Amino acid sequence: MINEDFLLSLKKWFITYTSSFKSSKPYYNLNFQLKINHTYRVCFEILNIAKNAGLSKEEINLSEVIALFHDIGRFEQFMTYGTFFDGKSVNHALWGIKVLNNNALLNKIPAGTRKIIFKSIFNHNKLSLPENADNKELTFIKLIRDADKLDILYLFSDYYNNKKENETNPMAELELPEGDDVSDEIYKTLINRQPINYSSLNNLIEFKMLKFNWLYDINFPGTYQIIKEKGYLESIYKTLPKTQKINDIYKRVNDFLDKKVSNQQSKFK
Ligand SMILES: [Fe+2]
Question: Deepest in the core among 57, 93, 211, 241, taking most CB within 10 A?
Answer without folding.
Answer: 93
